Amino acid sequence: MQVVKYMFQPHGDDRGQLISLEEYNDIPFRIKRVYYMYDTVADVVRGHHAHKKLQQILVCVHGSCKIRLDNGKEKKVVALEKPYEGLYVSNNMWREMFDFSEDAVLMVFASEVYDESDYIRDYDEFLKFVREHPEEKKENEG
Ligand code: TYD
Predict the structure, then answer these.
(1) 139 — phi, psi (to 5°)?
(2) Strand 94-98's sheet: what is its strand order?
(3) CB under 8 Å to 28, separation ≥6 — which residues?
(4) What is the three-class DSSP state of 135?
(5) Which pLDDT tens digit goes with each residue over 82-114?
(6) What is the pTM of this model?
């Protein structure tokens, strides 16, 4: 599995840092939704699902956390610890977010609006879905 991390360009000067993210330029899809998680309780594991269609870029804009990616064949853990790095998470990818620092703010840029019918929340159903949809492989599925 190829992990796709984006390194965003900070516009830094003696006042500090600024990052700007534009759809199609910095984020590889049209951004239809942004959401973020904060005040995550210690030792909590979030996620535990995949999406049939949704693509996302995850940015830990403050603090740190880890993301476990699982394409049904292979698993990888990716640490997000810098506000200038973004992790691309394709559809057909089981994800778990964990090891949140107390101050972590995890921001997600999503290619679709919220749609519960796009979620696969059962792991066995996910394995069946990826077996039946091999043609929908995206760049970080290797
Ligand atoms: P949930 O799917 O449990 O989050 P996670 O993937 O981090 O485990 O979502 C938590 C709640 O927020 C749930 O009631 C659904 C709601 N929600 C929205 O209303 N819109 C959204 O864009 C998202 C991601 C969640």
Answers:
(1) -60, -30
(2) 75-80, 65-70, 94-98, 46-51, 119-120
(3) 55, 57, 88
(4) helix
(5) 999 999 999 999 999 999 999 999 999 999 999
(6) 0.94
Tokens of 41: 């309780």
Q: Is the CB of 83 under 6 A from ligand 1?
A: no
Q: Which of these is catalytic: 49, 51, 62, 133?
A: 49
Rounded to whole angstroms, what are the CA distances from 3 to 17, 55, 69, 92, 102?
Answer: 26, 14, 9, 14, 26
Structure token digits, residue 108:
């997600």
- Taking the CA of residue 48 as reference, the ligand 1 atom at the shortest distance is 8
pLDDT tens digits for 13-36? Answer: 999 999 999 999 999 999 999 999
